[in-house]
Specification:
Layout (H helix, E strand, L loop, with lengths): L1 E4 L10 E3 L1 H9 L3 H14 L3 H8 L4 E3 L1 E3 L9 E11 L9 H8 L7 E4 L6 E11 L2 H18 L6 E2 L8 E3 L7 E2 L17 H19 L12 H11 L15 H16 L3 E8 L2 E8 L2 E10 L2 E6 L7 H16 L1
Antiparallel strand pairs: 1-2, 1-3, 3-9, 4-5, 5-7, 5-8, 6-7, 6-10, 11-12, 12-13, 13-14
Length: 335
């Protein structure tokens, strides 16, 4: 069961219960006034982003969390059973929502998939095996699940892990080809986070923080290179010899990755690819390579689902070589 509201701008907007089946029916057979409003929104999106965002708030919406009393406020949170992943800005990555949806519905865990109101994203609904009554635990699980799902389908650049709050709302849309699966597989939170192991929880939190910083990292232009951290530290030590340098937190790298690297490096050499730097990151390694005068960068992770290769398209790297290296490393893993 979920809940829906009519005007998210109203603080006291009363929520009512709704089933996933009814949400699906509203997507494929929308009320005429809602359909007209969304079609108008899709036109407005390309003309005025501010107006688009303001008008979207007038759409009806649903929330996966159940609230008592039925108002969308954290202090009213009761439990959550369903959750929605948000995939957005697909056009910026040259992806089609319809094509991507047809690929993702092969996942038997998927309850529902539909195109977003702005027509440039997807909403993916899943169901927990058991209700979660702790908003903080759910938020951490959500981020872990979103990260693994993104790696599985190479969606790191478009999946939004910020939507982990139990109060997060999802606006209704229109999609005559929305996908609905009533016999879906449910998801065990413990497969992603063992909350009875506090050290693991802390490690995961650190890994997620590190991953967020990695994603937000912007490569400076060559003519405006910043002084690196070692140079900064050297200058600071000269200014104040007694200054205590803050050590970088130690990252956790699964031993399976070190074992894989022994053969992978030789495999890359055979393919004419030079691996000139390996950087340890939480649960993974960042591989920096070059071939034919071009640079490439790829992240390699190891988790509950095994090895995952993730493209890392930084400024200054070749998009073509990034893709070739990704496929080449994936081929080695699949051997």
């Amino acid at each position: 069961m979920l809940q829906f509201g009519r005007n998210i701008s109203h603080k006291d907007d009363l929520l009512e219960k709704i089933s996933p089946q009814r949400i699906y029916e509203a997507l494929v057979r929308p009320r005429p006034d809602v359909e007209a409003r969304i079609r108008q929104l899709r036109t407005l999106r390309s003309l005025d982003q501010n107006q688009y965002r303001n008008q979207k708030k007038l759409l009806p919406y649903f929330v996966c969390g159940i609230f008592h009393p039925p108002y969308r406020q954290t202090q009213n949170f009761g439990f959550i059973e369903f959750f929605v992943l948000d995939i957005d800005h697909l056009s910026e990555k040259g992806l089609s929502p319809s094509v991507l949806k047809s690929q993702l519905i092969t996942d038997s865990r998927l309850v529902m998939a539909f195109i977003s109101p702005g027509e440039d994203g997807l909403k993916l609904m899943f169901r927990l095996a058991e209700r979660c009554y702790d908003s903080a635990k759910f938020s951490l699980f959500y981020k872990c699940f979103a990260r693994e799902f993104a790696m599985q389908f190479q969606l790191e650049q478009v999946i939004d892990s910020r939507t982990s709050d139990v109060t997060r709302a999802c606006f209704f849309s229109i999609d005559q080809e929305a996908y609905y699966n009533d016999v879906h597989e449910t998801i065990q939170m413990s497969d992603y986070v063992r909350f009875d192991n506090m050290q693991e929880v802390l490690d995961i939190q650190l890994a997620l923080e590190h991953g967020a910083k990695e994603q937000a990292e912007v490569q400076p232009r060559p003519d405006k290179q910043a002084i690196d951290s070692e140079a900064f530290n050297f200058i600071r030590s000269k200014l104040n010899p007694k200054i205590k340098q803050r050590e970088k937190p130690e990252v956790f790298v699964p031993v399976q990755l070190d074992q894989l690297m022994q053969g992978l490096q030789n495999y890359l050499i055979e393919g004419g690819i030079e691996l000139y730097e390996v950087v340890n990151i939480h649960y993974g390694k960042k591989l920096k390579m070059k071939a034919g005068g071009k640079l490439a960068e790829t992240n390699l992770f190891y988790g509950k689902r095994g090895f995952s290769v993730v493209q890392s398209p930084r400024t200054g790297t070749s998009a073509e070589l990034n893709q070739l290296v990704y496929a080449y490393i994936q081929q080695f893993i699949d051997m």
